[in-house]
Amino acid sequence: MAHRESPVVLNGTQVSYIGHDSKDIPHFLGETYGKFARRLDLSFNQLRLLAGLKMFTELEELVVDNNLLGNDLQLPRLPKLHTLTLNKNQLTDIEALLEHLADVTPSLEYLSLLGNEACPNQLVSLDKDDDDYQRYRYFVLYKLPQLKFLDSRKVTKTELKEAQARGAFMKVVKPKSEEMPKEAGLENRPLPYTPLPRGSRDAKNHKGVFAKCRYIYYGKHSEGNRFIRNDQL
User: Fold this and answer.
1) Cβ atoms within 10 Å, residue 54
2) Strand 61-63's sheet: what is its strand order?
3) What are the tens digits of pLDDT across the range 91-132?
4) How far apart, in whole angstroms, are the C-alpha atoms of residue 45 and residue 24?
5) CB-based burial of residue 183 (10 Å sphere; 0-12 exposed, 13-18 middle, 19+ buried)?
6) How many Å is the Cα radius of gyration of the chain?
7) pTM score
8) How far apart are CA 74 and CA 50, in angstroms?
């Protein structure tokens, strides 16, 4: 009889359930691993809800990149969670998301939202520029001042000070009327470089986005279970 490989990759307290097209978090994950898992990677699925996380009471790191999570995202209270990556989902309402995270993830220090409309940069829209992205950072840091790392950059003291002073007024969206006319042939130009996967559903291509540094590797199928250790900050 052929051996059937488990859909779960377990490495100590690190649990990976990647690329299974799941629309919900399977109940068996919480029953089997919820009480001891410290890190959970659910990337490359089709998740719209995260209700199953309520069984992961000890969770410290959560990776849910490349799913279908939208503005109705609701997390259970996760008091120990310090790292959250929501790259390449369908999030558009940044204010509602940040207010929710402030309520349910009081220990959050690392957050990445790249590839969502809520994170205005050229990864999602060519009409966004560096100023748009910096205003977004100020607004996020105003709402979540405890963050040490946002998207692909470390939070600086100067940036945090500016966020505290003006961040409340930095939720700025450019009116469509200000958009520049498209240049001829623009649609044929290559898209700007992106550190995120180009729609790949291969777990081996899943790469982290918390800046350039030495990495820690977890799991035999995912190349992207990478995070910064405290002693590397």
Assistant:
1) 14
2) 9-11, 14-16, 39-41, 61-63, 83-85, 110-112, 149-150, 153-154
3) 999 999 999 999 999 999 999 999 999 999 866 777 778 889
4) 9
5) exposed
6) 18
7) 0.73
8) 7
